[in-house]
Amino acid sequence: MAIDPRHLKPSELVRLLNSTPLGEVTNERQLYRDRQRAGFRIGDGRHLDLIRYAAWLAWERHNPKPAQPTESYEQHKDRAARRSAELSAAGRDIGELPAIADPNRRSRAATNFLFFCEAYFPQSFHLAWSDDHRKVLRKIEQAVLHGGLFAMAMPRGSGKTTICECACIWSVLNGHREFVCLIGSDEGHAMDMLESIKTELDANELLLADYPEVCHAIQALDGIANRCNGQLYQSERTHIGWTAKYIVLPTLRPKSWSGDESLAEMVRTDGRALASGAIIKVAGITGRIRGMKFKRPDGKSVRPSLVVLERHFTRVEKISFTWHYGKVWMIP
Question: What's this model's pTM, rounded to 2 decimal places?
Fold first, then answer.
């Protein structure tokens, strides 16, 4: 059967070229690379034109590409270092912030602690509030927004620990307090409460929907605290902190928030989010409480502006308090 040299399959072309007295001059791999470089100039994708292929080879041989400028070893190292730095920065950047799902819900929750608990923690507060609960929530709201000092005693199972944890979250997310100190009956209890707060900030989808400037950066850590030091947003460090005894919320300037009138109340005058650099720190009642302070990335030293003492009395402590101060409520 006659062979059409202008309409050959790749395998036929290889066999034809290797059938000359010169022996093997090409193979399917070399032909594949040539086809990728030449494109449709030597065939239609499935068949090849031997004459056009030979013309292309002649052109490639007599019109070589200009030689690439040689680079020294130092230049090669610098180029590799720049590329590595760019890849590293791209991997550490948290990317664009998701849009706020419900700005109206967030605005209402910013000054209404009861609504904040109901809107963002429906699994924790699924029962109806009692009058005593409402009274306690109003007192907490007053203390956070305007200052104050009060003590509350509630029986076991009434939600006092959960309310205290949510109060800490509410006060820092909405920019009411920049340094919150949560004190437990001992260091272990305090660290357990902080772990509960961290779980809410990391896994609560409702908080992520309305507070992306905080929760998105936290979720970007993927639970790996070592990523805090290198985390970036818009090529700037977030200075986030995520340890067993304290957390520092990310410092960032949400892109385009300042120009949106509906979101203007959610950023500071310097363009940073309200919760930027806020701290929640825990300690035991017998731990180091005096002299507590924290230096923020902007160089300002801050001290606790809100202290939440979530205290469980033991039987011995109850007797001691009763002896010195009269009868007290036993908080199991």
Answer: 0.69
